[in-house]
Amino acid sequence: MYLKQSGKALFPFIITVLIGLCVYLYLPSSQGEQLGYKPTATQVTAHTVTTHENPILIEAIGSARANQAIYINSAQSDYVTDIYFNDGDRVAKGQRLAQLQSQQEQLTVKELAINLKEEERQLSRLTELSRSQATAKSLLEEQLSRVDATKTQLQNAKTKLAEMTITAPFSGVLGKRLISVGTFVNSSTVLTSLDDISIIKVDFKVPEKYLAQLGLGMKVMTQNDAYPGKTFSGQVTHISSRIDSVTRSIEVTASFVNESGLLRPGMLLKTALQLSTNKALMVPEKAIIPQQDRHYVFQITEGVATKVEVHVTGRHNGWVAIDEGLNDGQQVVTEGIIKIRSGSKVTVKG
Length: 350
Known about the structure:
The chain is of the alpha+beta class. The chain has 4 helices and 19 strands. It has 5 domains: 1-36; 37-54 and 279-348, conserved putative lor/sdh protein from methanococcus maripaludis s2 fold, CATH 2.40.420.20; 57-67 and 195-276, Beta Barrel (Elongation Factor Tu (Ef-tu), domain 3); 75-98 and 168-188, no CATH class; 103-163. It has a 15-stranded mixed sheet that branches. Residues 1-7 and 23-37 have low confidence and may be disordered.
């Protein structure tokens, strides 16, 4: 009997405790302040929104190629007697690379030079005779033909002799040496390669819809994984006259001055063609809160974070361009977002 009465006495007490706990947990912040309760402000990191001029870019992938690139071959067939270069040498235009055996060509030039001298002497004698003897005029014409023919033969011999010395047709960097002294070479024998890498070119595709905006001299930026964080700047030097009927794109060539020599032919380059620029408010990407097809940020005003909707127009390297929802100079929360809700008091870390 006593236990039943005690149970009846405890029941109203338990109900009172539960009601008090609910009031404490769910009391609105405004009423809590009236009762003297002041919630602690949450520490966050913030960014001040500013207006930036942003480039409008077309990104593509292309393969680097040298300004000029050839394989060095010999125009004549003979044995190599001298080599004047090593693997990877930098050479200037006209610099000697190799020498072929040329004694026979030298003798031919010498012989034809002697013959030409004799033919010219005969021409001089007949010229004197033609002034007094009419019959010598026909002989003079024949001798003139002989002199011209000998001059032509001598010039051909000199050309062949010059071709026995192999030279660099332009300045650049040589590849591996593929011959040795004593090697017999002909026109199909590759001696080495030569690349002019003072300028590196890259070809890439641009969608047809941007054709009207393309122009020579437009700025192009490129990057390669070999140099993280490094950007090379160049410009458009060629726009194809044809549009690919399958891909509906146009090929564009960009050239990059390669004074440092860091860029090499064959590199995979990530390029970005700058079509134009526009001005927009820039916000760190980590400040954006995506919800379905909308985007929000926590804007800070007088120590209070308010969730506001913003309109995103583009993204670039960890930044987001905004054209609606924020004003220049306002602060947005970048770190500590998960700790707050709209209306929360915040303090910005110094």
